[in-house]
Amino acid sequence: MIPRELEPESMETAEDVEQYDAMDHSEVNNRFVADFLAAHGPCRGGEILDVGTGTALIPITLARADSYARVVGFDLAPAMIERAEQNVANAGLADRIRCIQADAKSVGAALDGIPFEAIVSNSIIHHIADPRPVLASMVDRISPGGTLMVRDLARPDTEAEVDALVERYAAGESPQARALFHASLRAALTLDEIQAIVAETGLPASCVQRTSDRHWTLIWRRPA
Questions:
Q1: Can you tell which superkingdom this protein's organism belongs to (predicted)?
Q2: 193 and which of 16, 94, 99, 189 could share a cystine (Cβ 3.0–4.6 Å)?
């Protein structure tokens, strides 16, 4: 088993953000949104929080898929939020998506304990050394009947598997993008590791499942 090697918590430079935003995330984002709506059902008009929103591609995809979706995009990096706001404006969705620069480790403090219809997060956990308080804070902010959906990469067992995944899914990307994907796979948690962490928050470990050759997904509904 290869050891976990953390990435930086956020992308700080405009060049990093440009590189990230230029990558083709459409297939992953479309699947994420489809899986969320299948678990949650139609949006109800309450706010949905996207933790680690990056350049707001998932909020935009969700808002286009469901006209009742209202989303708060939440990210640590000011450069990400700046690009996110540009993307939202260019999509004509500024009336339903707002972006906030804040730390995922302080979800409750940054948003004054506001409950959300749902909380989603894609590929933020592998940036965080100890995701327990982040996940616990997300759970606390879900309204009755609301949904928590968190998806991230799953760390492979061997370097050969890392290299194979990079070749399979990033062969057409730039060398910088390939290196970023490689580092993200090395920084990710294994399925066993994230299930143990989720169990410590009081949720069933079984709410986390392997959902692709490179992802795990946590889906939990708060009882109404």
A1: Bacteria
A2: 189
